[in-house]
Design goal:
The protein has 274 residues and is of the alpha/beta class. 37% of the residues lie in helices and 19% in strands. Strand 8, helix 7 and strand 9 form a beta-alpha-beta unit. It is globular, with a radius of gyration of 19 Å. Bound molecules: 2'-monophosphoadenosine-5'-diphosphate.
Length: 274
Amino acid sequence: MAGPVDCYAVMGNPVAHSKSPVIHTLFADDTDQNMRYSAILVDIDGFQQAVDEFFANGDLGLSITVPFKQEAWELAQRRTFRAERAGAVNTLWQDEQGLLHGDNTDGAGLIADLKNNDITIKDMRVLILGAGGAVRGVLDPVLNEQPAEVVIANRTVAKADALVSLFPEKPISASAYENLQGCFDLVINGTAASLHGEMPPLPEHTIGHRTGCYDMMYASGETVFNSWCRTHGAGKTMDGLGMLVEQAAEQFALWRGVRPDSTRILDLLRKEMV
Ligand code: ATR
């Protein structure tokens, strides 16, 4: 192929586990884009320098993963509204004037994957578990889908209260796990519990035979959360691999102006993981 190759990368620490290079390379093949996408391991205190060097080299766009999303938010000179609300940035690019732009595509990825699974949030009672950065990143897009109600449950209720206070006009409240009332239409696990093979202390009555259960984490097998929900009679369980692919598709569309066939690429990844 003629001409220089456009370069993109994911920055994180650790980063070796990241599926972003595989996903974006499949997207590039799918859409005939002449680009390269790599993974860059960045020192914990070296993020700003790494970002500066990347763009000074003429490279075009970055995906940002743990633990740099908040720092990326601070570095960005222009932020989209959804990134502003998320308090975190997972997508960086530079414009012709050299201004650094930041966006957050995580929430859009979650909503797109829920839709792919025939889940429409409108008028649903939604329970979200956890009150860290992962949950904050998806709250605004979830609320924009007009649920009847969103309840955030967290072990440390004060953190859930702080998130609720960001949305004074919306039907959202905080709760301790043990005070949760009734059954929900959709339960989204945004805690870090699955990373440690743990299950949040979710009361059984919150899950019914029509409840959709979504773990924002994914694993090669079933996650602890999804296994618990399935054995407690959930209507449907989904993991976060689809969200990962969809948030990447949103980034790719921002950078390249073309949208890849994310469903086909998710199928390929699933086959690769079994
Ligand atoms: P992230 O940026 O990935 O969201 P974080 O900001 O450290 O990470 O937040 C982790 C979230 O997972 C928190 O809501 C945490 O609950 P607390 O605030 O009460 O600590 C939640 N979490 C982690 N392990 C958990 C477990 N075993 N059970 C329930 N919640 C858990």
